[in-house]
Design a protein that fits this description.
The chain is of the alpha+beta class. It has one domain (12-165): Peptide Deformylase (Alpha-Beta Complex), CATH 3.90.45.10. The chain has 4 helices and 7 strands, in the order αβββββββααα. It has helices at residues 26-41, 122-135, 146-164, 173-179, and strands spanning 46-48, 58-61, 68-79, 82-88, 91-100, 103-109, 115-121. It has a 5-stranded antiparallel β-sheet. It has a two-stranded antiparallel sheet with strand order 4-5. The radius of gyration is 18 Å and the shape is globular. The structure holds zinc ion (ZN). Zinc ion binds at residues 88-90, 130, 134.
């Protein structure tokens, strides 16, 4: 197994809609193995294929009961509301309180092509909705209202600037202003 680099916000691959999987073959099985390793290394509890730059509709997850995968997943029913402080490996270091449905019914296929049907709630339901969003090119900040999204984008920008351009203790606002030329898409 080998691990991938996880794509982060700003990478266009995270904004594209992934294509359905037609063939479950050896290369897809290897991709899944490598995604599982990447998820554990991160560490995270879920990872969608676009997060490693692969535009296929599948994701892996582990809620503490071992690694699982679903191909061509689809939510067929959802209900209720649940508030959760949600983060994302592709938006590292930050999280936001987001309301989403509390229960979901997810269907799809396993790697043998068998039908899967999962009715889950709370954290696992949250994870499924989050990963399906990735397959549709949607990041969690798009689930915020417009004011909260503006604040979130500023926080992301500030954090990315702090990483690529640490401000020396002696430097003042001039340095901060120069940094604003680095934009998120
Ligand atoms: Zn994510």
């Amino acid at each position: 197994m080998a691990s991938y680099d996880i794509r982060v916000i700003g990478d266009p691959v995270l904004r594209q809609k992934a294509r359905g999987v037609n063939d479950i073959d050896g290369s897809l099985v290897r991709l899944v193995d490598d995604m599982i390793e990447t998820m554990y290394e991160a560490p995270g509890i879920g990872l969608a294929a676009p997060q490693v730059g692969v535009q296929k509709r599948l994701f892996v997850w582990d809620m503490g009961e071992g690694p699982r995968v679903i191909v061509n997943p689809e939510i067929v029913e959802s209900d209720g509301e649940w508030l959760y402080d949600e983060g994302c490996l592709s938006v590292p270091g930050l999280s936001w309180e987001i309301i989403r449905p509390k229960t979901v019914h997810l269907v799809g296929r396993d790697l043998d092509g068998n039908e899967m049907s999962l009715e889950v709630d709370e954290l696992e339901a949250r994870l499924f909705q989050h990963e399906i969003d990735h397959l549709d090119g949607t990041l969690l900040i798009e689930r915020l209202d417009s004011d909260a999204r503006k604040t979130a984008l500023k926080a992301i920008r500030d954090l990315q600037l702090a990483e690529v351009m640490p401000v020396p203790p002696s430097a003042g606002p001039a340095n901060t202003r120069a940094g604003q030329d680095l934009r998120l898409p």
